[in-house]
Specification:
Blueprint (H helix, E strand, L loop, with lengths): L6 E3 L6 E3 L20 H4 L10 H15 L9 H22 L1 H11 L7 H6 L3 H22 L4 H34 L7 H33 L2
Antiparallel strand pairs: 1-2
Helix pairs in contact: 2-3, 3-4, 4-8, 6-7, 7-8
C-alpha cells in the first residue's frame, strides 16, 4: 500500500531520482527533502500496522549512519542542509512508527482520514459512547458535591474507583479491537478495491477515536483521584 513512485530532482546535478531514495543515482550526492513520500517509504517499510520492530530499528540505525551531519561537515551548504533535514525527518519517522498508537494515527493522516481538529474528533465519537460519558460526568458531579460537603476521602474515592471500572473495561475492549482492525488492514492486497480499503480505514479511525476518548476519560478520573 505504498504511495506511487514519483521523481525528485537532484539539486547538485539536476538528475531525477525516485522519491523513496536518499542519494542521487547519477552523482551519489544526498538528496534534499523537498520530496520524501512518507515515513513508511522513507524507511523502506510496507504501509502496515504490525511492523517488525527489529527491522525498523535496523533501518533506522543504517540510515542514521548514512545521514549523520558529521559526514557532511566539509561538503557544500546544500549537502549539509540535506543531511540535517533527512536526519531530523528520520528521527521523527522512527519515533512515530515505533509506537503502535502513533503509527495508527499517522496511517490515518496519510490516508486522509485523521480528524483535523479536536472538535471534529469529538463529533466522530459514536452517540453510544457519549451516553456513557454523560453517565460518568453525572457521577463526577456527585463526587465533587461529596467533597465540597466534606465527605471522607475513602467514600468519594471509592465511588470514583467504581465509576472507573466500566471505563477501564471499555479501554481493554477497544485495544483488542484496534489489534483486530490493524490485522484486517495488513491483510489487504497491495491495491484492493477502493470500497474495501476505505471500509477498513473508517473502522480503524472510529475505533481509534473512541479509544482516545476513553483514554481522556480515564485521565480525568485519575486527576480527580489525585486530589486530596
Amino acid at each position: 500500500m505504498s504511495s506511487p513512485t514519483t521523481l525528485q530532482t537532484c539539486r547538485e546535478c539536476g538528475g531525477g531520482a525516485p522519491v523513496d531514495v536518499h542519494f542521487c543515482p547519477q552523482c551519489t550526492k544526498i538528496l534534499s527533502l523537498s520530496r520524501h513520500g512518507d515515513y513508511f517509504d522513507f524507511l523502506g517499510l510496507p504501509r502496515k500496522l504490525n511492523l517488525d520492530l527489529g527491522e525498523l530499528e535496523r533501518r533506522f540505525r543504517t540510515l542514521s549512519r548514512q545521514f549523520h551531519p558529521d559526514f557532511f561537515y566539509n561538503t557544500t551548504p546544500s549537502q549539509r542542509l540535506a543531511s540535517l533535514e533527512r536526519s531530523s525527518y528520520l528521527n521523527d519517522g522512527y519515533r512515530t512508527l515505533h509506537e503502535p498508537i502513533a503509527r495508527i494515527e499517522y496511517l490515518l493522516k496519510i490516508e486522509g482520514l485523521a480528524p483535523k481538529t479536536p472538535d471534529e474528533a469529538s463529533r466522530q465519537v459514536p452517540p453510544a459512547l457519549l451516553e456513557d460519558v454523560f453517565a460518568l460526568n453525572e457521577e463526577l458531579d456527585t463526587v465533587r458535591e461529596m467533597r465540597a460537603d466534606g465527605a471522607p476521602s475513602d467514600q468519594w474515592k471509592g465511588r470514583l474507583q467504581r465509576a472507573r471500572e466500566p471505563i477501564d473495561a471499555m479501554r481493554l475492549e477497544h485495544e483488542a479491537q484496534l489489534q483486530r482492525l490493524a490485522a484486517r488492514w495488513d491483510a489487504l492486497d497491495a491495491s484492493p478495491a477502493d470500497a474495501e480499503r476505505r471500509s477498513a480505514l473508517v473502522a480503524l479511525r472510529d475505533c481509534f477515536l473512541e479509544r482516545n476518548y476513553i483514554t481522556n476519560l480515564l485521565a480525568g478520573i485519575a486527576r480527580e483521584l489525585e486530589t486530596a
